[in-house]
Amino acid sequence: MAAYLFQLELSEFTDDIAAAVPTHRDYINRLFAEGRLLSYSVSVHRNMIWCVINAEDEQEAMEMVLSFPLYQHFTEVSCHPLLFHNTLPSSIPGISLN
Q1: Would you tell me which of 16, 58, 76, 86 could form a disulfide with 9, CB atoms 3.0–4.6 Å apart?
Q2: What is the pTM assigned to this prediction?
Q3: CB 6 within 8 A of CB 51
Q4: Is 3.30.70.1060 the CATH number for 2-82?
């Protein structure tokens, strides 16, 4: 699998976007649970989203972005293949079978 950084520009925040946010968050949370989404950030002005997607290839990553419930509100989408993506380890301790 490879990692892809997406920069997504949103149109002006409207009631239509606000109504789509709960469905969008559910989709994002599902991608995290599946290990397909590695990070997700939204600017304080709600006009930019950055996310790192784990996919077999760029086409598969783009198909995930096309499935975002907010996709129709994106004014620009750019994809950047990454050599690697490092993050801090999760603060949740591992399970002990003792």
Answers
A1: 76
A2: 0.86
A3: yes
A4: yes
